[in-house]
Specification:
The chain starts with a helix and ends with a helix. It has two helices and no strands. It has about 80 residues and is mainly α.
């Protein structure tokens, strides 16, 4: 039963992460399309800043997911020892 809850929790974390990244990508590309339609030039500095922001978000998401996985394994180990 506990293993089922842990796997369900991890699956929910993965699904939320992928869905949120898809939404972020859609917003990112729609912003690019809007700026491109308004002007003929693309500002490279804006693209680089958005890329760095995306990297920070991915790094944060991976840290949260890793912490969740480690805590789930720790809880599972504690339950097994009891």
């Amino acid at each position: 039963m506990n293993l089922f809850l842990i796997t369900l929790f991890i699956r929910l974390c993965f699904n939320n992460r992928s869905m949120s990244s898809e939404l972020d990508k859609n917003n990112f590309y729609s912003e690019l399309n809007n700026t491109h339609s308004n002007s003929k030039r693309v500002n490279v500095n804006d693209l680089v800043s958005k890329m760095n922001e995306d990297k920070r978000k991915e790094r944060k998401n991976s840290l949260v997911l890793g912490a969740a996985a480690v805590s789930a394994v720790t809880v599972f180990g504690i339950i097994l020892t009891l």
